[in-house]
Design a protein that fits this description.
The protein is mainly alpha-helical. It has one domain: 3-Layer(aba) Sandwich (Rossmann fold), CATH 3.40.50. The protein contains 13 helices and five strands. The strands form two sheets. The protein has a three-stranded parallel β-sheet, with helices on one face. Helix 3 packs across helix 11 and helix 6 crosses helix 8. The C terminus is likely disordered.
Length: about 300
């Protein structure tokens, strides 16, 4: 049955939620029923946390399609958009849906996720390493500079010296990351079965298990062998996915001790992050990385992990 926008869907779209994003009955009951029709892989990764590689592998293994569930990409700090999500749920003939949204778990997004029964996946990575990768991207990509990250990147950014650019990353970009992880940690604490938390260091060691875990969490049925094949195929085409260096600990060479202390103070505002601090501030060694797989294969990539993609 093709996509059908009936009176229930129209009513849901034109009935405003409460100010915090909560949907009221009977709209909430309708959205929960619609959301149960088919799974959606919602990758709510922060920028530079391996999201591009991950989503491309998921598309391969599911033979699915990438769909924008946010209203727009500009600014990068996404909010889920009801018409887009309804379209995905109501179109029974569409391929499996993969969404990659740089979004915080703020109340409106949490209430939206609850209404549709979505099961988001996030990736924890050292923030200084992500900021270093983000800085590399801003220096070479005008689209990234135009998008920013819930902020405006100054027009003269490229004219600054490296120290001023690093200050910008700590003062302007890093607060988004601190809030991002704080909101998701609160969501995990409140609803641990809803959110799947992956760790970048674990994904480096065994990307097959990480991909399989995310897909299983979102109610997709795939095998480890299927995941391995998809990862190998995407790795072979990595040049088209804007990979960076994939080093853990590289943030220490980008930011001074004083800048790292400022980053730590940002996280100190959120006591719920204490359990995640070893991953968020103290990445491991400085080895380059390409993805490992579970079994030997002539097609397998080398046995270290990928870089974080630019999105």
């Amino acid at each position: 049955m093709p996509l059908v926008i009936d009176s229930n869907a129209v009513r849901a779209i034109f009935t405003p939620p409460l100010p915090d994003g909560t949907f009221e009955e009977p709209i909430l009951r309708y959205l929960r029923a619609v959301g149960a029709r088919r799974p959606i892989l919602l990758l709510a990764f922060a920028p530079k946390a391996a999201g591009t590689f991950f989503r491309e592998a998921a598309i391969k293994v599911l033979n699915g399609q990438l769909i924008r569930l946010a209203h727009a990409q500009g600014g990068r700090d996404g909010s889920l958009y009801l018409p887009n999500v309804l379209t995905c749920c109501l179109d029974a003939t569409a391929p499996d849906t993969i969404a990659h949204v740089h979004m915080q778990a703020l109340p409106a997004n949490r209430n939206f996720i609850d209404a549709f029964g979505l099961k988001p996946i996030i990736m924890i990575r050292d923030i200084a390493d992500m900021l270093a990768s983000f800085l590399d991207m801003l220096e070479v990509d005008p689209v990234a500079r135009a998008d920013g990250l819930n902020c405006q990147v100054p027009d003269n950014f490229l004219e600054w010296d490296r120290a001023r650019k690093a200050d910008f990353m700590i003062d302007i970009i890093a607060p988004w990351y601190a809030s991002y992880f704080a909101t998701w940690k609160s969501f995990v604490d409140d609803a641990p079965d809803t959110v799947c938390v992956l760790h970048y260091s674990d994904f480096r060691r065994d990307p097959v298990e990480g991909l399989w875990t995310a897909l299983a969490h979102a109610d997709f049925v795939v095998s480890h062998a299927d995941c391995e094949t998809a990862l190998a195929a995407v790795w072979e085409d990595r040049a088209s996915h804007r990979f960076n260096k994939g080093l853990e600990g590289r943030g220490k060479s980008y930011f001074s001790p004083a800048q790292m202390m400022r980053l730590r103070r940002l996280l100190d505002y959120y006591p719920q992050l204490e359990a995640w601090l070893p991953d968020l501030l103290h990445a491991g060694d400085d080895k380059a990385a390409v993805p490992a797989t579970r079994r030997q294969s002539s097609a397998r990539p080398p046995s270290t992990m990928i870089s974080a993609p630019s999105t």
